[in-house]
Amino acid sequence: FLVRDTRRAIQEAAKKPCFICSKMGATITCWETGCDRSFHLPCAPQGECVTQFFGLYRSFCWEHRPQQAVQTRPRQNNTCSICLDTVEDKASYKTMVCPACQDARFHRHCIQRLALHAGICFHCPCCQNRELFVMEMLTMGIRMSKRPPSWESEPAVGPSDQRHSRCDASMCLCPGGRKHTEEEGPWKLLLCGSCAAEGTHQHCSYLESSTSFWECEGC
């Protein structure tokens, strides 16, 4: 019965168009009752959708996604506490605020990158709050790694060219071989967003051209 239900779910998903890119095969549907918007996971950032990577793994479209209930404090400079580039002066999909100190602001992509690298040590980069901060980030769709911080597993010294640089797909389809890589296109090499110890060409793992985040099977 489980196999039959899985097949039925796949068949139904194949008939659903993504409301963001309009292509078929949208497997994610908004959790809000009465909302029939479906989308692909790689399309979620473009459509400002939220997928929660904990509990029931709920997903929401741009209209029904959770919102931060924080009152941002006035600041002279509206800058991201991580990259120091300009951010909005209020909480939004792209600009997030620490619920504890309500002063730290950061781009969504900046705090997502920090969450993956910090792993189990993830906390607010300004006030160091962990419990309230982590729960808020998870609710807002930030994905965390359950690994130790990446800086603890990396060698203390060593040349920068030791970065993983080969395709580890079970069958590499690249004419140039596993170590061939290009800046764009099907032979662009993506490293695992959690461990950075394995890689794949986009085409070898059948990824969309817009895919910028990928995880290996071990993660």
Could you explain how this protein is built, in words?
The protein is of the alpha+beta class and 219 residues long. The chain is globular and about 55 Å long. Strands 1-2 form a two-stranded antiparallel ribbon. Helices cover 17% and strands 9% of the residues. It has three domains: 51 residues, 2-Layer Sandwich (Herpes Virus-1), CATH 3.30.40; 85 residues, Herpes Virus-1; 53 residues, Herpes Virus-1 (2-Layer Sandwich), CATH 3.30.40.10. A hairpin with an 8-residue loop joins strand 1 and strand 2.
Q: What does this entry show, briefly?
A:
With about 220 residues, the chain is of the alpha+beta class.
Give the count of structural domains: 3
Question: Radius of gyration, rounded?
Answer: 19 Å
Can you summarize the main beta sheet?
A: 2 strands, antiparallel
User: Quick one: overall form?
Assistant: globular
Strand order of the largest sheet: 1-2
Distance between the termini: 28 Å
**Overall mean confidence score, pLDDT:** 85
**Uncertain segments:** 154-161
Helix content: 10-25%
Structural class category = alpha+beta
CATH topology of the largest domain: Herpes Virus-1
Strand fraction: 5-15%
Tally of separate helices: 4
Pattern of helices and strands: HEEEEEEHHHEE
Corresponding CATH architecture of the largest domain: 2-Layer Sandwich
CATH class group of the largest domain:
Alpha Beta
- Using DSSP, what is the number of strands? 8
